[in-house]
């Protein structure tokens, strides 16, 4: 059963007065519990495509269905709730540098009706899950890139999302750290049943964790399928 379904989704930007189809009539279904990779060169439309999954980017045309809800038909409060079920991590971590690691992780819970003790207990549990419990009082600047990404992952999980979107999350990391982060994502997929949509420009990243892959070019999906089939050597 698909947890994410994009039907004929296009996103058109105005670029120097001319229309640019950053996403061009894409159909994509992603099954619950999958690790689905989206690969392509810079400018292929990967980020724009995944941003339609949480309506950070409104499609110009087409339908986005997540967990059987047509996102464009939801009221503002319902859309806000739907978005909470989609966590996101990025290449540059986007942590708050003036806040401790613990504060960063509890941040998404501040808008929830739960008290501080419960909120911090939850944040500590998440830090445990990503292997950073002893760093709760550190500041992001005191951490390595891989540790920062772990904090970002813990924060992305604060609202118990069903889906995690990873937009080039390992692109700023060395190969060993990349491997550790990918292992963590795989573990979260297996233990929490988290559906992961992973954007990258590196084939090795797709090969090491994804089950399915779509190759994007100029806004279109030009190839897709099982990773082993798409990247098999002839
Ligand atoms: P494409 O035509 O995009 O290269 P394929 O040849 O892999 O795709 O598949 C044939 C058709 O099946 C596609 O046009 C597409 O609409 C549909 N399809 C295949 N895989 C998916 C998927 N994961 N989600 C949605 N539609 C799919
Ligand atoms: P990728 O993630 O594959 O690198 P993007 O989705 O970031 O690709 O960009 C796809 C295309 O859309 C690029 O040509 C980019 O310049 C353009 N683009 C992205 N965002 C905007 C925007 N807000 N306004 C205009 N053009 C944009």
Question: Keyphrases for this structure?
Answer:
ATP-binding; alpha/beta; 234 residues; binds adenosine-5'-diphosphate; 8 helices; six-stranded mixed β-sheet; 10 strands; four-stranded antiparallel β-sheet; transport; single chain
SSE inventory with pairings:
Elements: E1 2-15, E2 18-31, E3 35-39, H1 46-51, E4 61-66, E5 69-70, H2 76-84, E6 86-90, H3 101-106, H4 116-129, H5 145-156, E7 163-167, H6 175-192, E8 195-200, H7 203-209, E9 212-217, E10 220-226, H8 227-230
Parallel strand pairs: 3-8, 3-9, 6-7, 7-8
Antiparallel strand pairs: 1-2, 1-4, 4-5, 9-10
Helix pairs in contact: 4-5, 5-6
Bound molecules: adenosine-5'-diphosphate (2 copies).
> Ligands in the structure?
adenosine-5'-diphosphate
Q: Mean of residue pLDDT?
A: 96
Helix content: 25-40%
Give the overall shape: globular
Instruction: Give the end-to-end Cα distance, rounded to a whole number of Å.
Output: 32 Å
Q: Major sheet: size, sense and barrel closure? A: 6 strands, mixed
Protein name: ABC transporter, ATP-binding protein
Domain ABC transporter: 4-234
Organism: Lentilactobacillus hilgardii (strain ATCC 8290 / DSM 20176 / CCUG 30140 / JCM 1155 / KCTC 3500 / NBRC 15886 / NCIMB 8040 / NRRL B-1843 / 9)
GO molecular function: ATP binding; ATP hydrolysis activity
């Amino acid at each position: 059963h698909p947890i994410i379904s994009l039907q004929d989704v296009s996103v058109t930007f105005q670029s120097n007065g001319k229309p640019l189809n950053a996403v061009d009539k894409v159909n994509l279904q992603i099954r619950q519990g999958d690790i689905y990779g989206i690969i392509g060169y810079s400018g292929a439309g990967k980020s724009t495509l995944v941003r339609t999954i949480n309506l950070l980017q409104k499609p110009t045309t087409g339908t986005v269905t997540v967990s059987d809800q047509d996102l464009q038909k939801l009221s503002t409060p319902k859309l806000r709730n739907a978005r909470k079920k989609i966590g996101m991590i990025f290449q540059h971590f986007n942590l708050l540098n003036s806040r401790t690691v613990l504060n960063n992780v509890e941040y998404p819970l501040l808008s929830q009706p739960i008290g501080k003790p419960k909120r911090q207990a939850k944040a500590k549990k998440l830090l445990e899950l990503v292997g950073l419990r002893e760093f709760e009082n550190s500041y992001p600047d005191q951490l390595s890139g891989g540790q920062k990404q772990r904090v970002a992952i813990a924060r992305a999980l604060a609202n118990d999302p069903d889906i995690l979107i990873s937009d080039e999350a390992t692109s700023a990391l060395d190969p060993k750290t990349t491997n550790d982060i990918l292992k963590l994502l795989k573990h979260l997929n297996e233990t929490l049943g988290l559906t992961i949509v992973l954007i990258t420009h590196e084939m090795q990243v797709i090969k090491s964790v994804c089950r399915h892959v779509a190759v994007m070019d100029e806004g279109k999906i030009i190839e897709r399928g099982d990773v082993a089939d798409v990247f098999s050597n002839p």
